[in-house]
Amino acid sequence: MERNAIGQGLRRSEDARFLTGSGRFLADLVPAGAAWAEIVRSPHAHADIVSVATDAARAAPGVLAVLTGADLAASGIGGVPADEKLIHLPGTPEDVAFSFRPPFPALASGRARFVGEPVAMVVAETAEAAAAAAELVAADYRERPAVAATEAAQGGAAVWDEAPDNVCFRWQAGDAAAAQAAIAAAAHVVRLRVRNNRVHVGALETRGAIGSFAGGRFHLATGTQMPHGLRDALAGVFGVDKSAVHVTVADVGGSFGIRNALCPEQILVLFASRMLGRPVAWLGSRADGFLSDYQARDNVADVELALDADLRFTALRVRTLAAIGAHLAPKGALSPTANTPALAGVYALPAIHVAVTGVFTNTAPTEVYRGAGRPEAVNLVERAVDHAARELGIDRLELRRRNLLAPAAMPYRTRLGLLYDSGDFPGTLADALARHAPPPAPRGWLRGRGIAHYCERVAVLGAENAWLELRPDGRVTLLVGTMSNGQGHQTAYAQLLADRLGIAADMIEVVQGDTDRIPSGGGTGGSASLAIGGQAAALAAADLIAKLTERAGEALEAAAPDIAYADGVFRVAGTDLSIAWHALAARLPEALSAHGMWKPSGPSFPNGCHVAEVDVDPETGAWRLAAYTMVHDFGTVVNPLLLEGQLQGGVAQGFGQAAMEQVVHDPESAQPLTGSWMDYAMPRADDLPGLSLVSRPTPSPLHPLGIKGAGEAGAAGAPPAVMNALLDALAPLGVRDLDMPATPFAVWRAIAAARL
Amino acid sequence: MNRFAYASPATVTEAAAATGLVAEAMVTFDESAVLKAGGIDLLDLLKLELLTPSVVVNLRAIKGLDAITQDAAGNVAIGAMATLSQVAEHPLVRGSYPALATAIAGAAGPQLRNVATLGGNLLQRPHCWYLRSPAHHCLRKGGGHCFAIHGENQYHAIFDNHACAIVHPSTAATALVALNAEVELHDAEGATRRLPLEDFFVGPDDDIQRENALRPREVLTAIHLRKPASGTRMAHLRQGEKAGFDWPLADVAVVLAIGPDGVCREASVVLGAAAPVPHRARAAEQALQGRHPGEAAAGDAARAALRGATPLSLNAYKLALFETLVRRAILAALA
Ligand SMILES: Cc1cc2nc3c(=O)[nH]c(=O)nc-3n(C[C@H](O)[C@H](O)[C@H](O)COP(=O)(O)OP(=O)(O)OC[C@H]3O[C@@H](n4cnc5c(N)ncnc54)[C@H](O)[C@@H]3O)c2cc1C
Ligand code: SF4
């Protein structure tokens, strides 16, 4: 039997199921006898809801119920709950608070504030009957002026009367006075405006929820990253004890953050199922998704980077306008605030100040998305560094080298409060450049190279527990509260445990996504599953081995301390007495349980350097990514194959944001125009070259296994690497600025503007 | 998507008989019967409820409609139901009409090309995002005004765009118009008519709610291509936002008949994604005719091709794009 150890590129055990169509996604789980729900959505970006006439829909064949905002209000259940507090970082005033935290009822009443906002729900015997009856719900609207663009929010039509300036919150961090003083005294200050374009996440599996209510308990089957968090949130919405809510999650076709948060439809199916006494299923269409999925990014930042006469950075100051959307989503304020420390980057920056204004617009709410604020911050600082080099006429590498934190400076506390534990940034940069070997450029095209260097704080979620059960047949079940959304957790956990337990990975079953079976869980997010859940599993494994060693002592009539376990065999030291795993398991009267809990004492700091090479056709603005290198430090790598998958997907998503992705609204009506894949461009495999991925691990000192977390790193570096490469290629033409997405149209426009 | 009946007429004989069957099937259904070829565009239209037919008539079961044949004179007929892959890979097409093969091989993506048909490709509806958005009741849908002309028009037309600024979505059409192809249409009585593809397409000035002259209960059965004269050179180039799986931002087909003396006798220069119908750039053609084509002529023709363009607020970049593509396509044809 070959040992499955940490570090092997084990293939994903879930793939057989996915590739043969036997995965179990939400649409596979609708129970017989379920009623079906269809959501009636606002066709207007901003309108008073004068009335919602439901009689015709109620009378339609097969219809069981039609719910409106008034019904929900009358029932007294809560809306979608959002964070109540803003995060505190060094420099955040003690009394910082939301200026306005609007209510977010699951169905709008009185006013609709974005196209796609749920206004009514029809429940019927079949999906078809529900859809047909939804057409009969006659809502009467009085249109209001709407605001779609983030920059237009202040001074635009008020999304909420309570917030006439459309401000949801004002927040800051860092030392305003120090930054101001440094900027005033600086030899050079470079300024630029950077836009982080609004993206639609577009997970392959569309959103959905199946609610049922029996024996006084709610059961929600849905896709989420955080089953326990969702359970707790729903308990709050319905005003019941946590124990009255059961959340289960089967296979999930992608989340990237958006399934983190509770969404209105999840509340609605539970509400309806309690009312009707039967399960209610809602399976959202792609069109539903484009309109009403939480969207992401969407902010505009003014960045100032101050330098002294030797071109050493003296201050970074950032003013950000961040779009919240029409409602504050559960974690809607997190990305622009809590993860701004990534602004400190890999540099010695003696003063930093960042101020963020969260603004309402008549658009879908924004939520966390792969990196949750870190890619946005990395984009700002890395764009600013290249911009400074160009404006000040210094080589970009030289400017970077002059300002990178040296390994000797570690541990280093940044001015936004993070304590970097380790990292060899100059070494990573040198390695990335050495490993980067692009093919020759096509003739007549402009070649550009972009660098983006980042250091992320990840794995900041709280504790994770892991429970193991060894059965008499020798097989082991892991129960853990993190949740795979396609990353391959089943494989990674089994491999990690196989390494720790000395048995084959296929003897380990991984159970996730059931809040009844798994007592608690922090969930998946912030690249934390393996870094925190993995360590909990490793501790549970140690617990199991300890318990088995006791049992082996009984079996072998020896004292436990004299017994050593290796490679599936318990052996009494210095004798030939031994008992194998299976034989020992077979003696168990019942399943043997073990437990491990891990709460990291601090975050971990994966870091890396991305290098992108682009070729631009100066006559058309068309361009392509010619080569891409990423040197990274994720600490201990459990499975390089899974890691590579994470990085490829992350880089593709970051590239997509830089190159083509953009939610477009009609400027006048705020109607979304990107309503299907026909109009919203997603990168495909043929848009990317093969990536050159180089591992340069330094195990995390805070983590017994040395794991740092890697899920978001690709997305963190790709946008600025690609944009810096484009700007490098276009510099000879005089182009100094370019916004994402850099479509051929945008590139050509930049070229044309520079020629004027 | 609404509920509809599904019919799949079939036959064992050749195209004529098959058309008879379709005709028969079609007369039994009311006006809201729609034809399904590959179903790629149709499915999108059904999902958006831009079409709510009572019957969907499948053309797939009709044998012979996908044939690609050559007559004794060397002319080629492509059955309307030939898939884009079949057309792009067929030796007759690759041998005699390489620009068509290139245009089609670059359209959409491999999975789509394996299903989509040439007929369906020519008859697909435009993909103006206002047209496809249920929230916008624009002129082409019978509404009061065009949202694109003062809205998000970066993907729209730069010619003939004053009423409705769609661009014709078919890439195959760009090459086929340049090749002076003809379409063959069968009606429910079994009668057929043939007309140049160029005349088959209908611009907004003639009828803003349709893109072609297909009559009710008419089926497109074949596309006819004349044997190219000797000395014919051709090329098709496209420029997109993505490497694949997307319509081009601009595409250009060039067909040149070069005499033994190296002089260009005839020239066809057609721009796709430029106007509501495939746009023949007559001034560019004139700039090439009677000349020894080369860098200079190509540059002149490219500039001439854009004369008279009326770009909208966001799509002036297409002028440069097309100018470059026209020049490159001419040079590629000569190469
Ligand atoms: C991602 C994507 C990218 C694309 N990129 C491109 C591109 O680059 N270039 C391009 O040209 N196209 C592109 N397309 C469009 C695609 O090629 C067309 O949708 C497809 O060719 C339609 O062919 P079909 O056989 O599926 O037609 P269908 O969808 O079956 O039919 C289309 C229409 O024509 C009618 N019809 C079909 N056949 C006949 C007939 N024989 N007689 C009468 N009426 C008929 C139908 O009633 C229907 O209204 C793209 C599509 C997608 C989804
Ligand atoms: S361009 Fe044509 S299809 Fe598009 S909005 Fe205007 S009228 Fe409608």
Description:
Chain A contains 18 helices and 28 strands. With 756 residues, chain A is an alpha+beta fold. In chain A, the strands form seven sheets. A seven-stranded mixed beta sheet of chain A has the order 3-5-1-12-9-10-11, with helices on both faces. The longest helix of chain A has 28 residues. Chain A is globular. Chain A starts with 14 loop residues before the first helix and ends with a helix. Chain B is α+β, with helices and mostly antiparallel strands and 335 residues long. Among the domains of chain B are: 117 residues, Uridine Diphospho-n-acetylenolpyruvylglucosamine Reductase, domain 3 (2-Layer Sandwich), CATH 3.30.465; 103 residues, CO dehydrogenase flavoprotein, C-terminal domain (Enolase-like, domain 1). Chain B is built from 13 helices and twelve strands. Chain B is globular and about 60 Å long. The interface between A and B is medium-sized, with 36 and 33 residues.
CATH topology type of the domain at 68-124 and 166-225 in chain B = Uridine Diphospho-n-acetylenolpyruvylglucosamine Reductase, domain 3
What would you call the shape of chain A?
Answer: globular
The main β sheet of chain A shows up as:
7 strands, mixed
Fourth CATH level, the homologous superfamily of the largest domain in chain A: Aldehyde oxidase/xanthine dehydrogenase, molybdopterin binding domain
How many strands appear in the DSSP assignment of chain B? 12
Low-confidence stretches of chain A: none
Strand content of chain B: 15-25%
Assembly level: heterodimer
Largest sheet of chain B: 5 strands, antiparallel
Low-confidence stretches of chain B: 11-31
Bound molecules: flavin-adenine dinucleotide, iron/sulfur cluster
Broad CATH class of the domain at 68-124 and 166-225 in chain B: Alpha Beta
- Class by SSE composition of chain A: alpha+beta
Amount of helix of chain B = 25-40%
